[in-house]
Amino acid sequence: MNFEANDMKVLGAVVGGGKTFKDIKTTTRLDKAEQEKILGMLVQSKLVTATKGTSFFGQEKYYFGATDHGTKIIDEYIEETERQKGLREKTIVEYRSVLLMMVEVLGDLPINELSQKHGRLFSSTLEKLPPRRKSDGRYKDKSIKEIVQMNVSNTMDTRTINTLIQRCSSWLNWVIRKGYYEDRNIFHGKTVPSKKGKNVITRQPFNEEQLKLIFGKNYLNKTLNSVSPCRYVFYWVGILGLFHGTRLQETTQLHINDIYPLRKIWVIDINDNSNDKKLKTKNSNRIIPLHQTLIDLGFLEYRKILEQNGKERLFHELTLGRDGYTKNPSKFFNDYLRELGIKSATEKYDFHSLRHTCNNALIQKDVNEEHRNDYLGWGQTGMSKKVYGKPFEPSILKKRCSNVISFPINWNDLKVDWKLIIG
């Protein structure tokens, strides 16, 4: 069974007191057919009960209720974690999905019946599951038990497995602190070792030939010359990511006033100072120099035109969703890489590969780790910088990082007159 956003909505509606299809529709806005499909899955998982009855007019009618074992403690944990940490919706969905997967594997047991054998069962089951179960047509309509019986050859990598185990372990630590469970954490010591000999696909930096292909003359056709209302977004986000190593979320949520001159240097201020912004870690909050290539391509002129037109956000065409503003740019970039033959089932490239490419460019120029960490928004490791030092000034990052980043691409081919296009 695979728990997605609509599954969470339906389960939440039932937990919140929704007893009929009508009640659930009021909360979820899902039609009856979609409700029936999801409720069937939830009943099979023993997360929801369904009782057949009759309406006032004698018609057959179903009444739904939530089971009252581990799932209620999961709900309490999610609510408290969300309240204390201010997690974004995507993270909350991921937490709940992992914990409901645990319930599917172990059963919705009373919490005091959990034992070490359940921890071992969960760990061993994860090792038999494939990646991307929710989107792969071979698995998306099957239960975990059914998938395990398929003897899948291409299973999740160990890092993903251990992340799932750690999230369940964090939940059970919370349960123990609350006094709901008095034994040892059943997930302690259940992480799995690296699978030596297995070719684990990880994100890679782009090589020179791939960069020439991505940012060649076809780049204009796929971005500025397309009919998409997000065509300007598509043009800029890739170039921003390449030269600054910014994450897609950081890039797409930029406001116009996040680009400004600071002591004669134009900078990008990556922050979370408005409600629509989220950063991955506290170290993600940083001020870095704007690369000269973007200035040469007219980025400041583009910014000025938007400001004159009264826009607040740099990429105002994007709408805020569960994953911030990343949905459309992420899909565009993945589709573009597939079309170029760069991304495939065995080649794990995506927008985040630009971040790896930027870091690799700095490494190849022998830029030290402290400068790279501040430029890319990573935590410092050395005691003197981590505890006592402040972030490097943009002028230092410009000299040590920005000025040494270059790629063998003819950027003149991508120059346009922004006044003619949007002015």
Describe the structure.
The chain is mainly α. It is 47% helix and 7% strand. It contains 20 helices and five strands. Strands 3-4-5 form a three-stranded antiparallel sheet. Strands 1-2 form a two-stranded antiparallel ribbon. Helix 1 packs across helix 3. The radius of gyration is 25 Å and the shape is globular. About 1% of the residues have low confidence.
Describe how the helices and strands are arranged.
Elements: H1 5-15, H2 21-28, H3 32-44, E1 48-54, E2 60-66, H4 70-85, H5 89-106, H6 116-126, H7 144-148, H8 158-178, H9 208-214, H10 218-222, H11 231-244, H12 248-252, E3 259-262, E4 265-270, E5 286-289, H13 292-296, H14 299-308, H15 327-339, H16 352-364, H17 369-376, H18 383-388, H19 394-400, H20 418-421
Helix pairs in contact: 1-2, 1-3, 4-5, 5-8, 11-16
What's a concise summary of this model?
The protein is mainly alpha-helical. The protein has 20 helices and 5 strands.
Widest sheet, order of strands? 3-4-5
* Termini gap: 51 Å
Structural class: mainly alpha
Oligomeric status: single chain
Rg, please? 25 Å
